[in-house]
Amino acid sequence: MNPPTDSRTGHPDSSDGSNLSDLSDRAAVPSRSNPADPFVAECIAALGASNVLITATDMASYLTDWRKRYIGQARAVLRPGSTEEVAEAVRIAARHDVALVPQGGNTGLSGGATPDESGTQAVLSLGRLRAVRSIDPANNTITVEAGCILAEVQDAARAAGRLFPLSLAAEGSCTIGGNLATNAGGTAVLCYGTTRELCLGLEVVTPAGEIWNGLRGLRKDNTGYDLRDLFIGAEGTLGVITAAVMKLYPQPAAQVTALAAVSSPHAALKLLELAQGAAGPLLTGFELMSDFCLELVRRHFPQMRYPFAQRYPQVVLLELSDNESEAHARGLFEGMMETAFDDGLVLDAVVAESLTASRAFWDLREHIPLAQAEEGLNIKHDIAVPISRIGHFIDYTDALIAAAAPGARMVVFGHLGDGNLHYNVQTPEGGDARAFLNRYQEQLNRLVYDSVVAHHGSISAEHGLGRLKIEDNARTKSAVELGLMRTLKQALDPHGRMNPGKVIGGVR
User: Fold this and answer.
1) CA-CA distance, 150 to 146, in Å (whole number)?
2) Contact 307, 361 (CB under 8 A)
3) How many CB atoms within 10 Å of residue 293?
4) 459 backbone φψ class: left, alpha, beta (φ>0; ψ -120 to 50)
5) How far apart are CA 34 and CA 41, in angstroms?
6) Alpha-carbon separation of residue 239 from 40, 205, 212 (angstroms)
7) Which element (helix H / strand E) includes 344?
8) pLDDT in tens, the chain (508 residues)
9) What is the distance between the alpha carbons of residues 340 and 305, in angstroms, rounded to a whole number?
10) Nearest of 347, 380, 202 to residue 268 by alpha carbon
11) Which strand (E) or helix (H) includes residue 211?
12) Domains of the chain, CATH where assigned
């Protein structure tokens, strides 16, 4: 995999399971679709022939997930160009009892947007819904359609003198609908929250083909059940998000980015407490990277400069966003670092002196998953634990893995400020990676997830459940919680046509 030239052409961080990049040369299974199929014929009449794909060649890119872990078949790929066309496609699918798999930019990491292998499902691509419907600077909102690329939403906000703070490695190709469907996190959750917290209203096509217009840019609306939150994070299993009202913020006057070397995750947590006390909401980024993570980047991307003269056990990337001035931000950061050095929390630190240097710091962080892929097959986990328990979780779980799989190398990095770790296991140096995964993957997944539960955490922090984590989710959630989820699914989608086999299981 080639490294991104900038953040917009990056790739998703990581996900659970092995990195099955060796499947990339597998052709998509030929479709069983037929232009004489009455379902296909009715879709062509409604959407136009060019927007109903039925050949294996045309459908191939829609049938494989980003990591190439899942390769499905489809009766057709539908590409509606408006909310009304989405609703009509859903109604046609209902008349023919065809299950639909909503899909955005297809950058998901848990198989949530990939059809199964039956060839009976249809992919519902939202890629043509690309309009920025309106921007309201006074209300600090932007209304966009589900197929808008995240970077395009950022650009539209910037052109209006505002900030849309959601930022993640796939922002050049992921869509806002997909971000909402998975409740994506990214690097700014510490200050601005997840996609759910950035959303004020939705437009949704229900499983019955009705359009719910909930595009109200209100911060207070106490008129009953919060329908919006039902659809966010549901991965298209309850309905199809077609548009959203998202929050905007003032553009910061300045940003200061720095790297700080610390002795352990425990020291990093103390630095986080200090930074939050000193900077408050100005602290917009706090990322943890282990020495081995950065060693992999140095090994596979030697052109990237390591900023310290020596290696340290852990490195933290901090970013302050200031609405006053760069001088104010730098003064705040320098005072904070002086206290951190005096308290023995920081071993070394370097502040970016330019936008180029700041981008280079973030590039180190964003190249970790790329370097890990270059190193070979691995076992990935996107988990969350309470921030206060992160240090103990890492110590405890590292020891369990070392005992269970001698020689395994830990690649631990992520959004320390919001408790989200990409807790990955690299095969032993020089070992047979495939044999290691065959022997240990199931055991280590269970070990990690059991430790997550013991530390009151979540087995999926920002990548969703999709197909990948259904069994583990069923094993780790309570019967009451699973029962409530199934009740919601049955109530909203009684025929099980919306993205079946995802999130809570059930294949039709």
Assistant:
1) 10
2) yes
3) 27
4) alpha
5) 9
6) 21, 6, 10
7) none
8) 333 333 333 444 444 444 443 333 333 343 445 668 999 999 999 999 999 999 999 999 999 998 888 999 999 999 999 999 999 999 999 999 999 999 999 999 899 999 999 999 999 999 999 999 999 999 999 999 999 999 999 999 999 999 999 999 889 999 999 999 999 998 999 999 999 999 999 999 999 999 999 999 999 999 999 999 999 999 999 999 999 999 999 999 999 999 999 999 999 999 999 999 999 999 999 999 999 999 999 999 999 989 999 999 999 999 999 988 888 989 999 999 999 999 999 999 999 998 899 999 999 999 998 999 899 989 999 999 999 999 999 999 999 999 999 999 999 999 999 999 999 999 999 999 999 999 999 999 999 999 999 999 999 999 999 998 999 999 999 999 999 999 999 999 999 999 999 998 765 5
9) 25
10) 347
11) strand 211-214
12) 7-125 (3.30.43.10), 132-250 (3.30.465.10), 254-369 (3.30.70.2190), 378-454 (3.30.70.2740)
User: Per the structure block, which two tokens stand in for 443?
Assistant: 């055991």
Q: Which two tokens stand for residue 220?
A: 């207070």
Structure-block tokens of residue 213: 């217009």
β-pairing, 211-214 vs 199-205, is antiparallel
- Token pair listed for 400: 């369990």
125, amino acid identity? S
Cβ–Cβ under 8 Å, residues 20 and 441:
no
With CA atoms as reference, report the closest residue to 358 among 1, 8, 7, 11.
7
